[in-house]
Design brief:
The chain is α/β, with parallel strands linked by helices. The chain is built from seven helices and 14 strands. It has one domain: Nitrilase/N-carbamoyl-D-aminoacid amidohydrolase (4-Layer Sandwich), CATH 3.60.110. It is 26% helix and 26% strand. The strands form three sheets. A six-stranded mixed sheet has the order 5-4-3-2-1-14. The protein has a six-stranded mixed sheet with strand order 6-7-8-9-12-13, with helices on one face. Keywords: Hydrolase.
Amino acid sequence: MRASLLQVAVNEDESVHSRRRRVADLVRDQAGADLVVLPELWTTGAFAYEEFAAEAEPLEGPTYEAMAKAASDAGVWLHAGSVPERAVPAGGSAAEDAILYNTSLVFSPSGELAASYRKIHRFGFDKGEAVLMGAGDELVTVRLPDTVLGVATCYDLRFPELFRGLVDAGAETLVVPAGWPERRRSHWTLLARARAVENQSFVLACGTAGTHAGVPQAGHSIVVDPWGEVLAEAGPGEEVLTVDFDPATVAGTRERFPALKDRVLGLDRPRH
């Protein structure tokens, strides 16, 4: 199976419209890959908080349309990263009741929406994304011909219980788009490898390059195998990281080293 991670540079001197068109062309260039992955909030930048409301889209908005067409043109499965989604509850007013979400979109090779995922863990510690966006509450997996994707986003990477839930739902390949800052890059690679080892899964973690809202991005998108070995890693700049991997390795690893069978669930909280 061939995956291409598009480590897109998100810079303030490029408009959202221009970047959307450019990224759609990058996706089309990956014809021949099985899976293409984009970063988190690549239209606005993950730290450009003031842009979230201004650039928020309905689920089937301009980014959805552009990425569905690009996936169909290239004939690839496309994890289109995430966008700031503007959702209006049933019976609500678009102006007054809309909720923003950090929403990932996954398209089939025919351009159909295969899944969407609203980020569960919002970053910011009572500011930024944590207060500007609502939290998702559903685990999402996507069945491809050769593997089952488990979908997570950026800050989710710090919460291993989410990934355990994805594995319990059948995930074999964990896909993590992100807008991870350079100042915590060591955490990015460490956590990607940890999630791969503890879940005996492939991890495809795709970040952004460039600087947005004054925050330099880590880049260094990474693909890790179920033993924690790094199969490929990007540098700091915009780059297409392409890697071939065998999804059957997951089942083989879990059979030869069946650690997941020894999980102990339902432990009582410690007594004080």
